[in-house]
Amino acid sequence: MTKTRLLTFCFFTLPMVWVIGLVVFAMVSLSASPQKPAQTTDAIVVLTGGQNRIDQGLILFAQGKASNLFISGVHPDVKKYDITKRWAGETSLPPCCISLGKHATSTIENASETAEWAAEHDIKSIRLVTSNYHMARAKLELSAAMPNVRIITNPIQQDDLDTSERRIWRLMFSEYHKFLLRYVQILFT
């Protein structure tokens, strides 16, 4: 490769690929909807950290979409009662099988905590609940931690995030780069 071609590649092609990737990532994330909404799984897994995530997990659990609900990244002081008292739906929650993971403070740790719980409970399929902007990286991490578990995604739109505000675009920018970094790290491990 000549020096001119190398410079052209570095200054034009790579930035163009990066911009296109960012736009595609944002479009896919913002337009994402739940996969196979009628299908049941062994468990619903909710990753904490954003508005509506736990509520959506409780809705799916009450609808019978899984016989287990695991919430990863819960604050150590939170009890199961604190979660179930949030429920205001017409149907009651199943009487058992809500588990709280209280050690995870990052998406990588969510994946590890979930994989450990899933192995203990012989879980073969999960419905993953997290925010739409977070779903790509969350699924990447959980797929790497649990390669034999089928993951159905259930991305949600947070009420406190609007595409007309800068905050969502900062989140997209940040998540895109975190996703790329983790993808490369997982690829080479």
Write structural notes for this entry:
The chain is an alpha/beta fold and 189 residues long. The chain has a single domain (32-157, 166-187), classed as HUPs (Rossmann fold, 3-Layer(aba) Sandwich), CATH 3.40.50. The chain contains six helices and five strands. It has helices at 3-31, 53-62, 80-84, 107-120, 135-145, 166-187, and strands at 41-47, 66-72, 98-101, 125-131, 150-156. A five-stranded parallel sheet has the order 3-2-1-4-5, with helices on both faces. Strand 1, helix 2 (53-62) and strand 2 form a beta-alpha-beta unit. Helix 1 (3-31) packs across helix 6 (166-187), helix 4 (107-120) crosses helix 5 and helix 5 runs parallel beside helix 6. The longest helix has 29 residues, at 3-31. The radius of gyration is 19 Å and the shape is elongated. The model has no long low-confidence stretch (mean pLDDT 90).
